[in-house]
């Protein structure tokens, strides 16, 4: 496995062949069939190994953290994993959960993300949607960065921090009195709850008070100064 990972690191997943691994290990290619059924199984084993490593890194990053601190640590670690091993990361299928051979490592990796989101009260489909957003942000930015997709001279770390700040804002609503925000039934239950009504009345009141405060500041600024 280590020899196969070295081939991937040096030449990319498309260059991985049993012959390349055999040459790296100094054995005849047919000898590898004692360990794997073929190239397809070897690629699956590599993907499982990479996802297992990601799970361990993510778990260590969020351990003892919660809320914004945990999500930031998770996203920073995701980016770091891709930067250190871009070719290995590219060896993981985009949809591993639907591959029976990768379902278990995929579930374990996903569970870490879901556990991180529980600090925001996100469960069920709401947590899945949030997890998808986190993955889209981390995968998109990290893949572009690894592929040299950011050509302008502005600092990438600053861009990354701004992106994380935007993501965190979407995860921490002032009040979340319902669990299901994605289905019609969930929306009906939410809008029919007293907590939903109170939260929205509070939001409307807040906007009114802000507007009144701004008007008062305008009037004070326009008023002539007195001795």
From TrEMBL:
InterPro entries: Homeodomain-like_sf (IPR009057), HTH_TetR (IPR001647), MT1864/Rv1816-like_C (IPR025996), Tet_transcr_reg_TetR-rel_C_sf (IPR036271). Pfam families: TetR_C_33, TetR_N. Residues 17-36 bind DNA. Residues 1-54 form the HTH tetR-type domain. One of its GO terms (molecular function) is DNA binding. PROSITE patterns: HTH_TETR_2 (PS50977). This is Transcriptional regulator, TetR family.
